[in-house]
Amino acid sequence: MEILLIVLGIAAVVGIYLWITYNALVALKIRVDEAWSDITVQLKRRADLIPNLIETVRGYASHEREVFENVTKARAATVSPESLEHPAKAAQAEGMLQGALKSLFAVSEAYPQLVASTNFLELQRELTDTEDKIMASRRFFNGGVRELNTKIVQFPNNVFAGGLGFTEREFFEVEDAASIQEPPTVNF
Predict the structure, then answer these.
(1) What is the domain extent for residue 101?
(2) Within a 10 A sphere around the Cβ of 121, how many other Cβ atoms?
(3) Is residue 20 part of a domain?
(4) Is this prediction's pTM over 0.70?
(5) Is residue 54 part of a domain?
């Protein structure tokens, strides 16, 4: 009888541990999913601003067709379903867009009337604000991924996490980290 009580006690402790671990992993997974959603919202916001910025610059610099095409392609890559579902693909698209935006702003520097345009300045301010929000969202997402991955690989969680359906998530790391350390800038 004592052995049965000991076995039931151990089973109860293991059951409670699994219950608590599962709920903690679910909470972390939801936090990471929410953080990724925040990133995609900001990427979409930026993607919506870029056509307005292109049109504003295009009005002044119609002969810079290649720059506009590169920005348009890079913008499309950042909001593609693949990029919005996979941090690695989003990171690759981010690097491409940052380079294209730098080219666009470089073209804009050659047109003083454009630089003085209220519309251009407002779009530039909105884009800078969005870039700041993307960086903050990325930090929050990566922090959540770090917590989730740590919990998954720690012993004894690593014994149960895979069986409960939890896998490590990938960080949102841009290939060329230097290109996104600061929002694109224009020197007048």
Answers:
(1) 2-166
(2) 14
(3) yes
(4) no
(5) yes
**Contact yes or no for 87/171 (Cβ under 8 A):** yes
Report the domain count for the chain.
1
Query: Which residues, other chains included, contact 38 with Cβ-Cβ below 8 Å and sequence gap of 6+?
Result: 137, 140, 141
Domain containing residue 159: CATH number:
1.20.1440.20
- Residue 182 in any domain: the answer is no
Residue 179 has what DSSP assignment? G
Sign of torsion over alpha carbons 84, 86, 88, 92: negative
**For every one of its 188 residues, what pLDDT tens digit does the chain have, with 9 covering 90 and above?**
899 999 999 999 999 999 999 999 999 999 999 999 888 888 888 888 888 777 777 666 555 666 667 777 887 777 777 777 778 778 778 777 777 777 777 766 666 665 556 776 777 788 888 888 888 888 899 999 999 999 999 888 888 888 888 999 988 876 665 555 555 444 43
Residue type, 125: R
Q: Is 172 within a domain?
A: no
Angle between helices 2-60 and 65-78 (to 10 degrees): 160
Q: Measuring CA to CA, which residue among 128, 127, 104, 108 is closest to residue 117?
A: 108
- Which tokens go with 60? 């002044």
